[in-house]
Amino acid sequence: PGMRFLIDGYNLLFALGRLNRHSGKSALDGARAWLHAQIQRQHGDAAPRVTVVYDGTPGRKGAESGAVFSQGREADDVIEERVHRESDPARLTVVSDDRRVREAARRKGCAVLRCLDYAEVHLLGAPARAASVPTPEKPATVDVSADRELFKHLENDPEFQREDWPW
Fold first, then answer.
1. From CA 98, how far away is CA 11, in angstroms rounded?
2. Burial label, 32 (beta-carbon count in 10 A; 0-12, 13-18, 19+)
3. What is the average pLDDT value for the chain, to the nearest integer?
4. Which terminus of the chain is less hemmed in, N or C, by CB atoms within 10 Å?
5. pLDDT(125) > 70
6. 73 — phi, psi (to 5°)?
7. What 3-state DSSP class applies to 85?
8. Taking Cα atoms as reference points, which of 92, 76, 96, 77 lies closest to residue 5?
9. Max CA-CA distance within the chain?
């Protein structure tokens, strides 16, 4: 059947900057919905093979397809238990930046990806897009003469003559 993914959901959303420690409940709901829309779009027919584990309980709208909630336990513990029970670890990729989760997955024989590595390859479609972007024939040049004129008065300023500065 192909590769399956077990994702540390909030870990991924924090790594992508979709959440921060000040995010409220509605931000959590919105971030989860965004992530699951991305998974549907990028994984297509294989999306059912992607499981995302979150801390806590589902939001007001309920759980997205493929979402598992830790229900009062730590999401990391739920992921580790699933990894431990995995019968075909060679077909499972665990996505997390948490060292303990990654180590448990490696010990079991699962593939492991850090959050941004997964996002770049499997979620945001960066490699496919990069291949389709035409390469410019020559690099763009930048005219800095206006900047030089603007900052000319600083030429003899001792603060800009320091030896530890790279310019």
1. 8
2. buried
3. 82
4. C
5. no
6. -105, 180
7. helix
8. 92
9. 71
pLDDT score of 23 = 84
CA-to-CA dists, residue 147 to 142, 143, 156, 167, angstroms:
11, 8, 16, 15
Q: Would you call 29 exposed, middle or buried from its count of C-beta atoms within 10 A (0-12, 13-18, 19+)?
A: middle
Give the tokens for residue 158: 């001792």
pLDDT of residue 163: 55
Answer whether 5's CB lies under 8 Å from 95's CB. Answer: yes
Starting at the edge strand found earlier in the chain, the sheet holding 50-54 runs 67-69, 50-54, 4-8, 92-95, 111-113
Instruction: To the nearest 10°, report the CA torsion of 41, 45, 50, 55.
Output: 50
- Contact assessment for residue 51 and residue 6, using Cβ atoms and an 8 Å cutoff: yes
Q: For residues 161 and 34, which has the higher predicted lDDT (pLDDT)? A: 34
pTM: predicted TM-score of the whole model, two decimal places: 0.72
| Gyration radius of the chain over CA positions | 23
